[in-house]
Amino acid sequence: ERVEEYLPALRPRLQPSGRPLAGLPTVLISGQTGAIGPVALDVLGHEVRLVATPRWRWEFGDGADLLTTEPGQPWPAASLTHVFATTGPVAVAVTTRWTATFTVDGFGPLDVPPPDVTQTATVPVDVAEGRAHLVR
Fold first, then answer.
1. I want to staple 130 with a disulfide (CB 3.0 to 4.6 A). Which of 21, 31, 57, 97 is the partner?
2. Residue 6 has what DSSP assignment?
């Protein structure tokens, strides 16, 4: 069996959706959870238990990036944010890198050797300028 079958899909989104405003926090959400497992597998009659742990790397298209073990949560939790300094279109890319450990018949844990499993997705963003409006 392939490990990738047990990993949640990477479905990033930003809040506010549509057009975040320059100078204000944009909430980052990977659409994934934390560690997976242990997942029990039968490999040639041996019980193998696998635990996969993710890390996320966000690249914001403005020269900034963020490496985190937090998947990001929607508002009001807003556990991950980024502030875009300028307006205009950017491509926000996120890569999940999964590392894993396993036990065989209770022996271990042992590190799963490289290469790590990665998932990558991109969200196109058009950062807008926030404008004040006077109200009577």
1. 21
2. G
